[in-house]
Amino acid sequence: MSTARETIGIGVVGHAFMGAVHSHAWRNVHRFFETPLIPRLAVLGGRDEGRAKAAAAKFGWADVETDWRALITRDDVDLVDICTPGDSHAEIAIAALEAGKHVLCEKPLANTLAEAEAMAEAAAKARERGVRSMVAFNYRRVPALAHARQLVAGGALGEIRHVRSVYLQDWLSDPQSPMTWRLRKEKAGSGALGDLGAHIVDAAQFVTGERITGVSALTNTFVPERPDGDGGRGQVTVDDTALFFGRLSGGAVAGFEVTRYALGRKNAMRLEVNGSKASLAFDFESMNELSWYDGTGPSTEAGFRRILVTEPEHPYVGVWWPPGHLLGYEHTFTNEVADLLTAIGEGTDPEPSFEDGLGVQRVLDAVERSAAEEARWTAVAAQIR
Ligand code: SOE
């Protein structure tokens, strides 16, 4: 491996689940990918100094800051990675971009459409100064989904007719499960819709290369209050589930369902695309596989077959393990930051951009407006670029 690669100072804000998985990615990425830049784990941000220090020691960060404002202006930080709840994304991202720092921001891009618009505008201005930004839709970096996109783009499916995607979890099924920030609108923006729906909207648009142009939606909150952990009860102010269908710009129809109440489904992020020549299907719980049906051959030999997406020719796989030696959730983040470092090093725009994140936000916003009027058909405004 080359020793001449430059380093880039990283500052991560937040050290819970996403902070941990991003830390893992930053630590390892250059050991597998020949990225033009090597991350320097400069500083980890967290409001509680003791907890931030413990996390920094565990994940290998050189220093901590308890105030994100101090973190984003440090000279040893070139890139700010935002792993906080959605209520702080816009403020941190815009300030970091204005301070000349590249930004990676967890999904969904923001809690509101107005915030997402402001972020996309700040990203466009920063781009003119060579400052890059990316929203962290990590499922784009699952090799099987990246491969699915290539198959669609290469015409292997023919004309796309149906897209169906669900994202099912079950961690809220027990009404006694306690409150968390994810159930408070002021913190999380929305519930299953923003947390899980953002992923499948992005995945559907990414794999098909098309845009959702309108939706009709229903949402529901099954358990309106939960134990707050202090002996009291807290109000759940977000959706527990969202169900919506829509049209794609290429003429296909699409159906989506997200929930945190599908008992037995732990992280079932699924996508199926049916075209005029073939169908493909993906399930994150078997993330190294794609199901593939070729509709062009003799019907007597037709049937779904399993493609094990672990060949070195498949996207991202070549730097990892030999065929059949499976990848996991954490690899998607390492693949993601590899793409980001490559774009920054080469002076190109990483994807998905904040504009892409805004596009997803527009769909989520249309879903909420439609659901507020019991599934009224609601158009999704076109992208700004
Ligand atoms: C929780 O529902 C969660 O961690 C999401 O926030 C992530 O984006 C998803 O990858 C797994 O589930």
From TrEMBL:
Give one Pfam hit by family name.
Answer: GFO_IDH_MocA
What GO molecular function annotations does the UniProt record carry, in alphabetical order?
nucleotide binding; oxidoreductase activity
Which keywords has UniProt assigned to this entry? Oxidoreductase
Give residue ranges for domain GFO/IDH/MocA-like oxidoreductase.
146-280
Keyword NAD on entry: no
Using the record's annotation, list all stretches that form the Gfo/Idh/MocA-like oxidoreductase N-terminal domain: 9-128
Under which name does UniProt file this protein? Predicted dehydrogenase
Q: Which organism is it from?
A: Amycolatopsis saalfeldensis
